[in-house]
Amino acid sequence: MLSSVCAPLAQEPTVQPELTTDILVVLGVVVLALVLFLTERLPIDVTAILLIVVLAVLEPWTGVDPSTGISGFANDATITVLAMLILSGGIARTGLVQELGHRMAAFAGDSIRKQLFVTVLATSPASGFLNNTPVVALLVPVVTDIANRGNTSPSKLLIPLSYASQVGGMLTLIGTSTNILASDISARLGADYPELHRFSMFEFTQLGVIVVLTGGLYLIFVGHYLLPERIPPQADYVAEYKVGDYIADVEIIADSPLVGGTVADATELLGPEVDVVQIVHGGDRLVAPRQETRIEEGDVLVVRTDRDAITMLEGVAAVELVGNPQSAAEIEPADSEGILTELVVSLDSQLVGERLDPEHFREEFNAAVLGLRHRGELVAERIVGRRLEVGDTLLVQAPPETLDRLSRGDDVIVAREPPRREYRSDKAPIAVAIMIGVVAVAALELYPILLSALAGVVAMVVTGVLEPNELYDAVEWDIIFLLAGVIPLGIALEQTGAAAYLAFLVVSTAGFLPTLVVLWLFYIVTGLITELVSNNASVVLMIPVAVAAAAAIGANPLAFVFAVTFAASTTFLGPIGYQTNLFVYGPGGYRFTDYFRVGAPLQLLLSVVTVLGIAFFWGV
Hints:
Layout: H1 21-39, H2 44-57, H3 59-62, H4 66-69, H5 76-94, H6 96-108, H7 112-127, H8 132-149, H9 155-168, H10 177-189, H11 205-226, H12 237-240, E1 247-252, H13 263-270, E2 275-281, E3 284-287, E4 300-304, H14 307-313, E5 319-323, H15 328-331, E6 339-345, H16 358-365, E7 368-374, E8 377-379, E9 393-398, H17 400-407, E10 412-414, H18 428-443, H19 449-462, H20 477-495, H21 498-510, H22 515-532, H23 535-552, H24 557-569, H25 579-583, H26 592-618
Antiparallel strand pairs: 1-4, 1-5, 2-3, 2-4, 6-9, 6-10, 7-8, 7-9
Helix pairs in contact: 1-2, 2-20, 5-10, 5-18, 5-19, 5-20, 6-7, 6-8, 7-8, 7-9, 7-11, 8-9, 9-11, 10-23, 10-24, 11-26, 18-19, 20-23, 21-23, 22-23, 22-24, 22-26, 23-24, 24-26
C-alpha cells in the first residue's frame, strides 16, 4: 500500500458542472446554516428545525420534500446515536468511570507526567466505547481532585482531558456521534461509489490507536509546557473569584422591621441586587436559605452584591454592616454543611439562554451563587441578569446532598466531587456486560449496530441499571435534533449537484498537487470548519464534496471520507468547536488563546499522522 502514497499528480477535471439555480439555492441554505451555527443567534436544535423547514419550503430547488425533510429523525445514525447516549448514561449511573479515575489517581502522586498519563489512560479508552461528552463531564471533578492532591494547577490537566477524549473517540465506530453519522453518509453514497460502505465497529481502529498514542505522548511530554497555570494549585475559590469584594455581613438590629420576617422580606427591602447566601444564627450557619426562612434579631445575613450596593447597605436603618469576609474559612463552614465549588453549565442545561437570577437559582437548585466566569473571564461586578451560556462557570455554595443530586443531573457539571455520592455500583458488572454484548454483536455483524444498541437499552432497563424515567435524561436532545436537521441538508447537497460543483472548484484550484496533499487539505479545511460549526454539520457538508473531489481526480473516495471524519472529531484550536472543550473552560480558568497554543501543534501533528496512516492502510 505504500506505493499509493506516491500517487501521480491529481488531474484537473475537464468538464465543469453547470451552475444551476438549484445549486445556488442549496448553497444559499448552506451559508444560512453556517451563519446561524457561527453566530449562535438561535439554539442549535432550533437552527436544525429551521433548516428542515427551509429545505422543504424550497422543495422545487432543493429536491427535499417534507417526508425527506423529516427523514433525519428516523435515520439509522440518529437512532443509533440516541441509543448510545442512553447506554453511556447507564454506565455513568454505576460510577464505573469515576472509580477508574480514582484508582489511577492513587498512582499519579505529585508527578505532572504521571497525572497526565492517568488522565489520558482513563479518558481515551473509555471514550472509544462511550460518548465522550459524559465521559469528560464525569471526569472533570476526578481530574481536578488529582491536580489538587498532587499540588498541580488544574489548568495543566483539564484541556488534556478534553483532547484525550476526542482522540479516544476515534478508536471505534461508536466513539462519537460524528463517526456514526459519517458511516451513514458513506453507506448512502455507496450507491454511486462502490468503494464506500457502512463502517464496521473496528473499521478504523488501527489508525485510531496510532492517533491516540501520538496525541497522548504529545499531551504527556509536550502539551503541559505550553499550558499556563491559570488556576493555582489548590486554588482558594474566594480569592480566585474575588468574592471578598462582593460579600458583606449585615446584622439584623433590635428595632429592625425584618425581625420575625423572612428572607423574601429582606430581599425586598435591601433590593434585587442583594442576594442572601447565608444566615448566621448564634453558632449555626444556614447555607442557601429559602425565601420563607425566618430572620431573628441578632442574625447575621451574608449577602452577595456589587460594590455600589455594599456602600448603600451602610445607610439602611434595618441592618448594620458588620464586616466583609475575606477568605474561604469565613464563608465555608468548618463542618462542611456548605461546600464551595464550581458548576459548569452543560449542553442540555435548562439554564442555557436564561438570565441569572440568584434568588430563583437558590430556590431551584438549593445553592447560593457567589461568582461567575464567562468564557474564562471573571464577571466581577453585576452577575444578576447575565444571560448564561454553555460552559459558563458558577461559583456556588451548597450542602453536600445538593451537590450529589446536581452531579447526577444534566443541568450542570460539578467541578468538585461531593463527599457522599450514590451510584449503582452493584450494577456495574451488568452494565459492562451489556456494553460488551452490544459491541460484540455489532463487531461480529450478527445484527446492525442500530439493533444491538437498542437491545442494549432495553437490557439496561430490564436489569435495573437505568430506571425508565432516566432514559430521556440521558439523551442530549440538541445533538439528536442537529442530526435530524443536517441530514436532509446533506441529501440536498448530493441530489442537486452542489457537492459536485464545490468539488470541481476545489480540484481545479489544487489540481496540480499530489493526491496525498489534496487529501491533507481536506483534513485541514474540515478541521477549520468544525471550529466554527458543529462536528456533525461539518461532516455532512464536507463528505459529499470530498467524495466528489476524489472521484474527479481518480483517488480513493474512502480515504477522503476517513480524512473528513477524523478531522471533524478532533478539534483543538478553540473552546467552541467541541462541547468537551467548553466543559473545561471555566474550571481551568482558560483563555481562548490557551486552546490554540497547545492545540495548533497537536492539530498539525495529527493531520500529518492521520493522512499518512490513511494512505498506508487504505491507499489514496
